[in-house]
Write a structure and sequence with these properties.
Two copies of one chain form a homodimer.
Chain A lengths: L3 H4 L4 H8 L3 H8 L7 H13 L6 H8 L3 E7 L5 H16 L2 E7 L8 H8 L4 E4 L5 H8 L4 E4 L3 H6 L6 E6 L2 H13 L5 E7 L6 H12 L5 E6 L4 H12 L8 E3 L3 H13 L9 E6 L12 E5 L1 H17 L10 E4 L1 E4 L5
Parallel strand pairs in A: 1-2, 1-3, 3-4, 4-5, 5-11, 6-7, 6-8, 8-9, 9-10
Antiparallel strand pairs in A: 10-12
Helix pairs in contact in A: 2-3, 2-4, 3-4, 6-14, 10-11, 12-13
The first copy, chain A, binds a DNA duplex through helix 3 and helix 5.
DNA sequence: TTGTAGGCGTTATCAT
DNA sequence: ATGATAACGCCTACAA
């Protein structure tokens, strides 16, 4: 049986032996350090090449302790919402010299636990969209700094207060107000909001919306759609539901941009003109909103600012030392109404 | 001046001291290992909690040597093409227990060198879309296993043969043949291909296309478009160019899906019906091709297979030991014609 | 159940 | 210019 050592990668000692020098000289050659003759350096690099030597990142990182690493957890990178966010997080992380480790965690409390634990052992802080119970979060991430994105107040309140946790939440209220006022200014009489029924309770946005509309003397319409695999279907289904009602809406605020694309599509299939017959407003401000026709009016989230806030919070948490108290801050981001063609 | 040690994170020894045990007992408590009394464990965990202790990933990884880490380099995560690819790479990596480190490298030979070097020091292999000269690639990545995605033959040939390098290329020829034959079967007489002028030379796909069309007794039309910030503009510009010619095309094969969306949009703006007046075929098979109207007919790339091939190659390269020869394989992926509404 | 000794692979420091 | 020695923080193996 072959010695395990033989099949593994060459280490610094093997290179040193082959080149007939000490390991320190190998280090000098590999890292372009001064204090080594060109001839020796050449011999060492030759030996390294021959053995396909590559310094172990473990050994190096242990002694240098410099590299900082950030974890990002999202449910689906192929979803433009998450990929635009990930792109901004990547930029912020790179700009500050942090590496970015990305993990996809599919929805469902049981899925991907092992990956999350593994991630927790490899990074210095985590930014995450997470659908885990507070107890599980504490169990999996322990004392690792964790910044939760757009999570509920209940979840935040239930987290262990002794753990380094932060949050950046999305406050839809101001943007939703702008959208509603914009539609009213356009003379719309029956404004509808699409809501996905994740549970039996209405989502927070419904409450805000109802109050907004009532304050302005109209009757709110909420289009409730079952959870679907695809937001496109959510949007199409929303139109089916809304236009089978006796009095269909003349404006639809979709659940997000992706579902708004579905709304646009189903409206076109039905021969209903946008925005003449029905305005459509999305939420998120994805770049591909410019790719559809008509171009999507939307409540744009500033992903760069969102990422920056989350990153700052993560750094803050990870540099807090033992003696200082935990910050426990909860930041917020808002939307900006971007009026394009659909509403 | 405060001792640097004081402001840093607590180590295993401090926890051990506070709990009044040896560091080994701390390890047992932290890692849920047997051979420790509940009472001692409680005391240790309490001490760890108080000091906000978290085992150093450096020390752990060094001794365990288990965690494998894959780097992925793309130009823009917010571009759906790259995010769909990244999503598949993430799945493959996770399924095999590898962590995934993502880096964005904007186009341009000078940008992001430092980030790439940093990445090279933190991972065990890299999969990359890269626009670097072969010499720079060898300089930056050294003996680190590197799998290049969709790169030119010239680049591959110029790489140092002693380095662990692999490649997965996209062979457009079979798919393009299918697309052309499909359009001919539809009775199209003037099929045009959109090409971006990255350099003064025509791209490879143009040559393939011209030959294909001529073999079938038609005259090829290539729509040349300048490089643009956004593929949407590429598509719109292509239509402007094509329909300002004396004999406009009755079918357009776009540069990719993103530019195809631009083509669709500009055609609609001009009141030209799709597919009646002009068929449109994209390349890539992005998920959002289903979001536009009409749904985009496209040459779909199997991103999952693409990612799997690249990952396998990366693993292959990184497990090759010193004695065995370098594989140097060049794999290929192809497209599948997916007929939807636009052509 | 608990503690001690050793080593993982590298870089930094100091001596030669 | 080069080499010897000592960390880095943790885990595994073995001894008590």
């Amino acid at each position: 049986m072959a010695n395990r050592k033989e099949v593994q990668r060459a280490g610094i000692l093997e290179v040193a032996r082959l080149a007939g020098v000490s390991r320190q000289t190998v280090t000098r050659a590999m890292n372009d350090m001064p204090g080594i003759s060109v001839e020796t350096k050449r011999r060492v690099l030759e030996a390294a090449e021959e053995l396909r030597y590559r310094p172990s990142r473990f050994g190096r990182e242990l002694v240098q302790q410099s590299t900082q690493s950030l974890g990002l957890i999202v449910s689906d990178l192929a979803n433009p919402y998450f990929s635009e966010l990930a792109s901004e997080v990547a930029k912020v992380a790179a700009a500050n010299g942090w590496a970015l480790v990305v993990v996809e965690k599919r929805p469902g409390p049981e899925s991907g636990r092992a990956e999350l634990r593994s991630l927790a052992g490899q990074v210095d802080a985590i930014i995450a969209y997470l659908d885990l119970a507070p107890h599980d979060i504490d169990g999996i991430f322990g004392n690792l700094p964790l910044v939760l994105l757009d999570t509920s107040e209940q979840t935040l309140d239930a987290l262990s207060p002794s753990r380094p946790r932060g949050a950046v939440s999305i406050d839809l209220a101001p943007g939703l107000t702008d959208a509603v006022d914009h539609l009213l200014a356009l003379g719309r009489k029956r404004i509808a909001l699409v809501d996905i029924m994740y549970s039996t309770d209405e989502s927070v946005r419904c409450g805000i919306f109802r109050e907004l509309i009532r304050e302005r003397g109209q009757e709110p319409t909420v289009i409730k759609v079952e959870v679907a695999e695809d937001d496109l279907h959510v949007g199409r289904r929303a139109v089916e539901v809304a236009f089978s009602a006796p009095e269909p809406p003349d404006a639809i605020i979709a659940f997000n941009d992706m579902s708004a694309f579905g709304v646009l599509k189903e409206l076109r299939v039905r021969g209903l003109s946008v925005p003449e017959t029905c305005c459509v407003i999305g939420i998120d401000g994805l770049k591909i909103g410019l790719f559809v026709d008509p171009e999507l009016t939307t409540l744009r989230l500033d992903f760069a600012a969102f990422a920056q806030l989350a990153f700052d919070e993560a750094v803050q948490l990870s540099t807090t030392n033992v003696s200082s108290p935990l910050p426990q801050s909860r930041k917020r981001v808002f939307h900006e109404l971007v009026v394009r063609q659909s509403g």
